[in-house]
Automatic annotation (TrEMBL):
<dbReference type="GO" id="GO:0042351">
    <property type="term" value="P:'de novo' GDP-L-fucose biosynthetic process"/>
</dbReference>
<keyword id="KW-0560">Oxidoreductase</keyword>
<feature type="site" description="Important for catalytic activity">
    <location>
        <position position="117"/>
    </location>
</feature>
<keyword id="KW-0521">NADP</keyword>
<protein>
    <recommendedName>
        <fullName>GDP-L-fucose synthase</fullName>
        <ecNumber>1.1.1.271</ecNumber>
    </recommendedName>
</protein>
<feature type="binding site">
    <location>
        <position position="212"/>
    </location>
    <ligand>
        <name>substrate</name>
    </ligand>
</feature>
<comment type="similarity">
    <text>Belongs to the NAD(P)-dependent epimerase/dehydratase family. Fucose synthase subfamily.</text>
</comment>
<feature type="binding site">
    <location>
        <position position="150"/>
    </location>
    <ligand>
        <name>NADP(+)</name>
    </ligand>
</feature>
<dbReference type="Pfam" id="PF01370">
    <property type="entry name" value="Epimerase"/>
</dbReference>
<feature type="binding site">
    <location>
        <position position="219"/>
    </location>
    <ligand>
        <name>substrate</name>
    </ligand>
</feature>
<keyword id="KW-0413">Isomerase</keyword>
<feature type="site" description="Important for catalytic activity">
    <location>
        <position position="119"/>
    </location>
</feature>
<dbReference type="InterPro" id="IPR028614">
    <property type="entry name" value="GDP_fucose/colitose_synth"/>
</dbReference>
<comment type="function">
    <text>Catalyzes the two-step NADP-dependent conversion of GDP-4-dehydro-6-deoxy-D-mannose to GDP-fucose, involving an epimerase and a reductase reaction.</text>
</comment>
<dbReference type="GO" id="GO:0050577">
    <property type="term" value="F:GDP-L-fucose synthase activity"/>
</dbReference>
<dbReference type="GO" id="GO:0016853">
    <property type="term" value="F:isomerase activity"/>
</dbReference>
<feature type="binding site">
    <location>
        <position position="279"/>
    </location>
    <ligand>
        <name>substrate</name>
    </ligand>
</feature>
Length: 323
């Protein structure tokens, strides 16, 4: 533990900067903080403050002087986008996190939470993936650029702890879903893509849906409201240089997930699996024992979480992100 950390509630009247507060994760964290009584939340959209603009980021933090920062801004995308635009994923994420963390250091921000992703772990890491498998093997090549940027972020948090004794921390969420997700054909991850596909089939009266692969890979999904809850819990209770995995500790096959989504949206037709398309890695599950030891476990079950996500998706037609 760093000398400057005492476990316990954060000051509800302190200024909290949530970078990326309109995104899936950032908006959930913002909602959670507001519900928990934080009165001074600050955020800026990417058009108001491009976090790649170092001078503007420094000026923003100097103006608001946040005591706490949650770094949930990033260039995020599915496998296709990551594989096609590796330069953008590497360069933009390095710039965003470097600028925010350097400016936060200049302001001596007391608590900063950096968010990475489970793709930081080696492609052949043991399952469930423990935190200490970081940097023990080769990355999945389709998103290695993004992963390297995120690994650099973890290292930056550790370096700040070492050199400045500030109790900054990192959390690595599993696949997330929920209200505010990206449902666009280009930018979506697997779960929102499935929701969109099944919901469109219901609206179009289609009798068949075809998904990629065999449906047998196992994946873990955490509702973003649970994620936000875990983030606040870690900020109040966890202090250590090692990143903390955030997940449910349970996985399902893509086929099971697709069936649950079909049931939730009311699709009664047939699902085909296009086995000529790649499956990706057979299993990806985080070891969440460190998080459990820190006192937090997930609460929102998959079906319950999918219901609220589908409701949100249907209520926000016309306002959804387009890429
Ligand atoms: P989103 O795409 O939903 O949100 C990203 C946010 O980052 C947006 O609010 C966007 O702002 C902001 N942003 C991006 N580029 C810039 C920029 N140049 N300047 C200012 N703001 C910028 O992503 P998520 O919420 O899903 O992801 C947030 C974090 O959580 C990431 O670090 C990601 O790695 C992590 N994560 C997400 C997972 C998931 O399944 N979604 C899984 C694991 C980790 P604006 O809307 O104003 O353009």
């Amino acid at each position: 533990m760093s000398d400057s950390f005492t476990p316990g509630p954060l000051d509800r009247d302190a200024t909290v900067y949530v970078a990326g507060h309109r995104g899936l994760v950032g908006s959930a964290i913002w909602r959670r903080l507001a519900a928990e009584g934080f009165t001074r939340l600050v955020g800026a959209t990417s058009s108001e403050l491009d976090l790649k603009d170092r001078d503007k980021v420094f000026a923003f933090l100097a103006e608001h002087k946040p005591r706490y920062v949650v770094l949930a801004a990033a260039k995020v995308g599915g496998i296709m986008a990551n594989n096609t635009y590796p330069v953008d994923f590497l360069s933009e994420n390095l710039q965003i996190q470097l600028n925010v963390m350097d400016a936060a250091l200049e302001q001596r921000v007391q608590r900063l939470l950096f968010l990475g992703s489970s793709c930081i772990y080696p492609k052949l890491a043991p399952q469930p993936i423990p935190e200490d498998s970081l940097l023990t093997g080769h990355l999945e090549p389709t998103n290695d650029a993004y992963a390297i940027a995120k690994i650099a972020g973890i290292l930056q948090v550790q370096a700040v702890r070492r050199q400045y004794d500030l109790p900054w921390i990192s959390a690595m969420p599993t696949n997330l879903y929920g209200p505010g997700d990206n449902f666009s054909p280009q930018g979506s991850h697997v779960l929102p893509a499935l929701i969109r596909r099944y919901d469109e089939a219901v609206r179009d009266g289609a009798t068949e849906v075809t998904n990629w692969g065999t449906g047998s890979p196992r994946r873990e999904f955490l509702h973003v409201d649970d994620m936000a809850h875990a983030c606040l819990h870690l900020l109040e209770h966890y202090d250590g240089p090692e990143q903390v995995n955030v997940g449910t500790g349970k996985d399902s096959t893509i086929k099971e997930i697709a069936e649950t989504i079909a049931g939730v949206v009311g699709f009664e037709g047939t699902t085909n699996w296009d086995t000529s398309k790649p499956d990706g890695t057979p299993q990806k599950l985080l070891d969440v024992s460190k998080l459990a030891k820190a006192g937090w476990t997930a609460r929102i079950g998959l079906e319950e979480g999918l219901r609220s996500t589908v409701e949100w998706y249907r209520a926000h037609q016309g306002e959804l992100r387009e890429k």
